[in-house]
Amino acid sequence: MRIATLGISHETNTFSRVPADYGQFLAAQVLRGDEIADQYRSSSYTFAGYWDAADELEFDLVPLMYAQTGPIGTITKDAYDRLSGEMFGMLREGGPWDAVLITNHGAAVSEEFPDMDGEFTRAVREIVGPDVPVGVTLDMHANVSKAVVDHTDVCVIWRTNPHLDTRVRGRKTAELIYRTVKGEVRPVQWIEMTPMVVNIVKQFTAEEPMRSLVADAFTANERPGILDTSVAEGYPYADVAEMGMSFIAIADGDPDAAREAAVWMARRGWEHREALNVEVPKVDEALRMAAERYIGPKPEGVTNPGPTEGSALEAPTGEGEHARLGPIVLMDVGDNIGGGSSADSTFILAEAQRTGFTGLLQSLYDPEAVEACVRAGVGSELTLQVGGKTDDMHGTPVRVTGTVRAITDGEFEETRPTHGGFRFYSCGTSIRLDTTDGHTLLLTSKRVGNTAREQMYHIGIWPEKYRVVVAKGVVSPRPAYQPIAAEVILVNTPGVTTADLSTFTYKRRRVPLYPFEEEASYDAG
What does the mean pLDDT of the chain come to? Predict the structure, then answer.
């Protein structure tokens, strides 16, 4: 049995001013053939789950091509045409296939195709024909369209956010497709799209109400004849008609069972619409909270935890309570790199300077500052304008004076649990800069999120020893930083991923859509 695998994975922030052109993909990752296995077979990503199934069920998994870049702006027509053209050529020439496994993100937008994932699955189906099973595994932030469901036999979505089950869900997709090829099951799918958005600050699946909605998916999966169930939180920064929450059920030959399971989950989700959209503190309030709640460093001897230390899915303690000593972690919502932001927001750093707050650690994407530090060399003291250089949405450059403590190539491997299950990372040339006003900055020449503590450890920074760690993200940094945090506080900073969705002008979204239209209603009947 020969099963092909391929995909374009991109989370498109249509409000970002950084286009996802072909060069962006080349700079990030374009892999072909065995390069995919070299990068992902030993990881915890979706592909690893496909290989798990291939090894256990004894089918031949043939990796064709995979392309991805970090979340930025709309994919250019040239980039999509070149990437998909090469992939589809491989799919045609390498056939016939017994099945196809796709690894896309599910929230991709190109200049030509607002529903890029729908177009990608349509093209795959056209190439292999109606009788070859096609499966796709998507990110939980997918804006899933009916086209994706119509053009696949199996659509499986990750069930955790932060994304720690990517390998498990990939294996589930592959197993269902294998069983379909063998004639053991006849999957039929139903997608139920509720007219609501889940604010990014309420998408953590270890906290209510998302915890209950994921539990509902497990409960619905126990119904007779149901093969799999999924809940997609959606991605609110992609201005497309499919933007919002959706629920998918896959049944064995029974479309009514699939529909009933999906509708049951959707109705229960709709009941939580208000709780899924809440406000969080702004910068000044968050720093005041951090100053009040910080109670000291972690004890000596735990500054370099082992690879499995901590549980990334445990929710933090209640407001103002501390399960342990350690830093206060401020989640910089408006500069959520995993959501397509700039990685160089300065709002929190500027407020810390204004108020005299010390002991802050954060990263900043700033190739210009990195170059200046490299020229100066380790041990040099210099004055720089850092951050706020990508656009006018994420603050202005902040003047700092500091000493260059270390310079690295930014290449590191993370063996601890990470969001998405990735293992190998690159920040580009990286600088540790200790400022004269009591902060430490990690300056990078690439846009990289704060999803792995090894990002800090590899350059000699111990985040456990700081009063505040600024993690640019909402949920994705939790596997790295929640195990060492006294408390996690979400901060509603301005920016292209701000929690205040009223700051964006949507042109393609559905109307009505809660909470934009509070009178929106949902009737599955």
Answer: 93
